[in-house]
Amino acid sequence: MRRFRWFAALILLVGCGGSQHAPQEKYYLLSANVKIPYWQAASNGLLRAAAQLQVQAEAVGPDTYDAQAQQQELRRLVALQEKPAGILISPADATLMKADIDAAIGRGIPVITVDSDAPDSKRLLFIGTNNYQAGIMGGRVAANQLNGKGNVVVFTMPGQANLAERLNGYKFAFSEHPGIKIVDVVDIKGDPRIAFDTTQNIVDKRRDKVDGFVCLEALAGKEVADVLDRNKVSGKTVVAMDTDEGVLNWIQKGGIAATIAQKPFTMAYYGVKMLDELHHHMPPSLDVNWRQDPFSPLPTFVDTGATLITKENVGDFIKARDAAAAKK
User: Fold this and answer.
1) Sequence-ordered alpha helix ranges (H) in 111-156
2) The domain that contains 45 carries what CATH number?
3) Domain span at residue 156?
4) Which residues are 185's β-sheet partners?
5) Do 123 and 7 belong to one domain?
6) Mean pLDDT of 152-156
7) Which residue, 73, 83, 81, 1, is CA-closest to 31?
8) Same domain flag for 98 and 202
């Protein structure tokens, strides 16, 4: 009966009870590399939801990609005297963050993963892209551009579950074309300079042996396109990830064939709304294996969707993005 009452409370329309919020109620979005445009878009979603709910919110995390610094920040949040009302986190390293996510749950702080998951932790649910399907989407575009054959270099950051899922999606798509081979997987360590330098090295030493470049994260795509353009290299396929301004510019110029647009704004916006309901209608215990409970009131995964952006629709995407920004 207690679970039923909590479930009934959870499905009430979010944001309806402004009077229930206390002045000190605060929600956090913890990411790695917080300064990049992707996480700035997520921060906008966080703040939009917080304004509607009349609560406090803050985006926190390291300014550059640093999994250990992200871990220390989570530990700081969990130890705050004024306990967070809830935490959204995109784990840079799911294994590294597991114990600290579990500690937050143990302290009664609702934790939801966004963008990148930590499925072996006690997080309550994951909100983000179906990254395996996003990889298949990108892989099929790349395969089409390559005419079903060629050598491909992949730029990624091992340790992030979302990037591993994307790579698996690409591998599945490429398995439909035996002539396509992934010849190198490069860890850029959150540093776009590594993508730039690696691409330059490929151009200098084995230009004719690499036909395509796949970028599983937001930083590498524009660096690859820049190197190819500087060296007047044509005929290479580049598929990027996310909608950094530089990536969109290169799509318009033809240097990048396509990118996959995610919804970081939606992830954070919806995540805060769910955390708010959990905070005000707390279940009897957060430390429950919701994934295995057939009567769980929580979903395991909320898919926020992804869109393929090419030269044909990039202009429409930019107009829609600018219109949304004007509504803030």
Assistant:
1) 131-145
2) 3.40.50.2300
3) 131-261
4) 154
5) yes
6) 98
7) 73
8) no
Which pLDDT value is given to residue 11?
Answer: 46
Q: What are phi and psi of 105, to 5 degrees?
A: -60, -40
pLDDT at position 17 over 70: no
**Number of compact structural domains in the chain:** 2
Largest CA distance in the chain: 69
Is 99 in the same domain as 170?
Answer: no
Q: Residues 288, 223: one domain?
A: no
* Cα 158 to Cα 94: distance, rounded to the nearest angstrom: 11
Residue 29 inside a domain? The answer is yes
Question: Nearest-5° angle of CA 100, CA 192, CA 41?
Answer: 60
**232, 285: one domain:** no
| Residue 117 contacts residue 126 (beta carbons within 8 Å) | yes
Kindly state the tokens that stand for 297: 């009131």
- CA–CA separation, 90 and 60 (whole Å): 11
Residues 49 and 120 in one domain: yes
- Residues 208-234, mean pLDDT to the nearest whole number: 96
Determine the number of helices (DSSP H) and then strands (DSSP E) in the chain: 11, 12
With contact defined as beta carbons under 8 Å apart, do 244 and 38 qualify?
yes
Nearest to residue 282, comparing CAs of 14, 3, 1, 75?
3
Q: What is the DSSP string of 155-177?
A: EE-TT-HHHHHHHHHHHHHHHT-
pTM of the model: 0.84
Q: Quick one: which of 42, 25, 21 has its CA closest to 33?
A: 42
Helix extents (H) in the chain: 2-10, 37-53, 67-79, 94-106, 131-145, 161-175, 192-206, 220-230, 245-253, 264-280, 314-326
